[in-house]
Amino acid sequence: MTYPPAYFQDDSQASILALVQQAPMATILFATNDDELNNAIYAPLVFDESQQVFIGHVAANNPLAQHQSVKVKILFHGPNGYLSPNHSDELVVPTWLYANAQLTGELTLVRDHKRKLSMMNFITEHFEQPFANPWPVSALDDEKRDAMFKHIEFFTVSIHCWRGHFKLSQNKPLRVREQIKQSLSEQGSTTLAQQI
Questions:
Q1: What superkingdom heads the lineage (predicted)?
Q2: DSSP 145
Q3: N or C end of the chain: which has fewer CB within 10 A?
């Protein structure tokens, strides 16, 4: 038995990265002394296509920062919401719609100062895109930037396994999906509606 059903799976890197673009805050699971992924931290991640790795940073006192290299599982949670039978004249029971991804890979801390600066620029430029006047890292003088770098640790994550779980009524006829999409939009769930 396959779970989730094949029509709710999309393991393509492109689909998962589109989800990450919308919901970059990741739950990162990692092990300490044993092999159990029983520690969880939270950090926004950005995918560097040129290097084919996710990049991010955490506070220097974060437990994750105590590991030079560690196996991780990363969870991204995209839009989700309740689907009522009222959303379509052909729906019989309620359910929940969601777009999530589960990735496994290897996290490695970055020690090189120039690379840290490059990563900070990359992350900042990515998240500053919506602003008319994006804030540049260069606005910080060297002293402030170096002081900030003492309190954060940068890392990369190379991904070995991409798993996308998109339960968005793919098993319903197109007409029903269009009704659901319109109804969700009218209810204010536009981000979820756009996924359908």
A1: Bacteria
A2: H
A3: N
Instruction: Read off the tokens for 50.
Output: 């040129």
Q: How far apart are CA 1 and CA 172, in angstroms?
A: 21
Sheet holding 25-30, edge to edge: 39-44, 25-30, 69-83, 95-110, 152-167, 53-59, 46-48
CA-CA distance, 164 to 109, in Å (whole number)?
26
Question: Does residue 97 sit within a domain?
Answer: yes
Our count of domains for the chain comes to: 1
For residue 82, being part of any structural domain is answered with yes
**Quick one: tokens of 183?**
């109804």
Distance CA 114, CA 52 (A): 19
Alpha carbons 189 and 118: distance in angstroms, whole number: 37
Q: Decide: pTM greater than 0.85.
A: yes
1: in domain: no
Residue keyed to tokens 């994750």? 64
Confidence at residue 34, expressed as pLDDT on a 0 to 100 scale: 67
